[in-house]
Amino acid sequence: MVAVTSFIAMLATTLVDLAKLYFDPWSTWLWVIRGVLLFFSDKIKTRTWILYSKKADFQQHVTIENRRAHDEIVDLWTDVLSERNLSSLGDEKWLIFEQVFKSALHCSKQSIARHCLDQLEKQFKSTSRRVTTLNAMYHESIDDFKSADDIYSNLLDENETDAIVQKRQISLLKEKNQIREAISQLNSYLELYQADQEAWSELCDLYLSEHDYAKAAFCAEELLLINPHNHLHHERYASIRYSQGDDYEKARTYYFSALKVNPANIRALYGIVLTSTNLAMKNSSRSNENNQVYIEQIQWAREQIIQKYREAIPDLLPVVELALQSLAL
Amino acid sequence: MSDINTLAFTKMFLHLAKYPELAVNGILLSEKTSSASDEADSSSYLHFIDCIPLFHGILSLSPMLEIALSQIDAYCSSKKLTIAGYYHANENYSDPNPNFTTLKIMEKIKENNPNAVLFMIDNSLVDLTENDRFYNVFTLSDRTWKNVTDSHIVNDESRLSAMQLVNRKQHRQLIDFDNHLDSISNDWRNPHIRNELNAASF
């Protein structure tokens, strides 16, 4: 409605301009009419702009900042967007409906999710696989796992290469607490989609929840191979090796490589202190040379940590210093 | 026998509210009594007065847990507090049972305080408009869990304060140890939450 009125006002302005050109450029009446039309169309533009700026807020939450602030998105919806007519946003509103739907599911606001889903289904009918997947997600949220699974199976019958639906079926298993099955299915999936970082990360987490550190380490290694420039991959791999308990040397190596990629990674610094301390304790009866290196590096890492705390949060420094002392040999 | 004050109860609840889709855990601190013995004493009274949220997501990796416990220990020694409780919430909504990670961490905590108890979060009770508490309390002996929730007291003010702070979106301001390690200027002692509570009670 807003868009149509605005368009008509613009059109009218153009016609008045043409009339002025054709008839009499100095006609007072035409100037007055033109002034009124411009005023009108400006007013309409302002309302549309408010809507656009809220949409920008919204997109910022979702895409640019990449935070999972689902409750903020639902709040934005309830306070602002649901009160307005979204037609002036054009095709972007379907993306907004989809995002609000997912966030509402996260916050257990099924009524909001249902409303968004209805809008999407009205527009895209039942032929859209994307909307059908969302429908299945809605069933999952109301604990209707059987329907959700049936929908996913049907979608896969039509197109067995659909990665998103395959992953949703796996997360369905996780919801039902069938972790072993989820692990097995995820392994089959990864045989085909070997570069899917999200899937490797999820498999790593599943193995960790089963305390299978060896297999979790394998997944972390795959992540390292796919993207060796991500310091978090190095640090996660190191932490898994440390938790496993029998290869502190490898853990230490990867804490150092994490630090090399990102010198601000405080977990890596702490990791160096822990691993070097453990290695020095293990080797205390053997050669002094290796121990000397470990001890120097523990000292270096501690100084780095203390320096960072002194700069960022000096209030906490006494606690941290005491804690580091308690970890000492 | 144990009870919990508003600050500890609220911080625990805010941690759950901040990460509703993830497993979370944390430490509960109680006043250090002068008669701290090395053996488990079933008649000891635990008065929980503070809470330090630890991690969210993956709870089974040990290096940062060691760092966190060493810092919390150091913090406790200057405040006459002691680590006396551990809370744990599973990722899966319908799983209120302690798992292997819970066991390992409780055993580690009990090395320093044999009277420590587990606050096992029951995700289905997290609606505080319907329930007065969202967890059950357990003791651990010989790898067996014993439910001692009946001897744990929660006052009504805690429940109301927790709900109020979540309504004021304070859960987004809560800092757990993971947040601290991501950026060390985030203070895991959460002094701002204490201030919010003091402001809220008037």
Automatic annotation (TrEMBL), chain A:
SUPFAM superfamilies: TPR-like (SSF48452)
Protein name, per record: ER membrane protein complex subunit 2
Keyword Secreted in annotation: no
A Pfam family per the record: TPR_EMC2
Main subcellular location: endoplasmic reticulum
Record keywords: Endoplasmic reticulum, Membrane, Repeat, TPR repeat
Quaternary context: Component of the ER membrane protein complex (EMC).
Organism superkingdom: Eukaryota
Biological function: Part of the endoplasmic reticulum membrane protein complex (EMC) that enables the energy-independent insertion into endoplasmic reticulum membranes of newly synthesized membrane proteins.
Domain EMC2 TPR-like per the UniProt entry, residue ranges: 133-240
Membrane topology summary: Peripheral membrane protein
Keyword Plastid: no
GO cellular component, one term: EMC complex
Similarity field: Belongs to the EMC2 family.
Compartment(s): Endoplasmic reticulum membrane
Organism: Adineta ricciae (Rotifer)
TrEMBL record, chain B:
Transmembrane segments: none
Provenance organism: Adineta ricciae (Rotifer)
CDD domains: MPN_UPF0172 (cd08060)
Annotated family: Belongs to the EMC8/EMC9 family.
Protein name per Swiss-Prot or TrEMBL: MPN domain-containing protein
One Gene Ontology cellular component annotation held by this UniProt entry: EMC complex
Every MPN domain range: 2-146
A Pfam family hit: UPF0172
